[in-house]
Design a protein that fits this description.
The chain is an all-alpha fold and 202 residues long. The protein is globular, with a radius of gyration of 17 Å. 74% of the residues lie in helices and 0% in strands. Helix 6 crosses helix 7 and helix 7 packs antiparallel against helix 8.
Amino acid sequence: MLAIIAFAVTGIIAVSLRGIDLFSACVFGTITALGGGTVRDVILGVPVFWSVDLSYVWVALLASLVAFVAKPLLDRQHLYRLMLYLDGFGAALFAVQAANKVWDLGFGIPVAPVILGVVTAIGGGLIRDVLAGHRTLLMNRDLYAIPVTLGCVLYVLSLAYLPEHRLLSAVVCISIIFGFRAAVIHWELRVPHWLMTSPRDD
């Protein structure tokens, strides 16, 4: 629920510069919060998590409404950075929880838990950016997917070789993802230019 709230709020912040109305805020906030998990469950062929418990939808909608109303406050630098940290924590929670779910279902082990962990953490943001016409998370220099991928890989390795320490492994991997994202936010780290291709001038 904390992750859903964080994703809904940061989802609205990400698209609000172009101007959005209340309905658009609810749509973008909910898609950001629930999109990644929805894609994961569709791929897994299991009931979509929010269809089983609609409280996830209500929380996403409520968080979206609050973020829309409180947008002037969220524009303040210190609150905006706080939301970025919450977003990083939400991504960490989503990623590890998803990898754990996929592992327990025995789906595509060992690769699928990593892939779907990343999809769950960044999928909602990708869908939001595509709908809003923004550059997606995977097309800019922000270190977002890399910390999530690293945490998911480490968690899957721990499930394979240290299954008796699952809870501890989950806490450690969530901390690694969040710590990495926190460092990225604090020091404004970016992917080096030499690891990226140059955009073509049409």
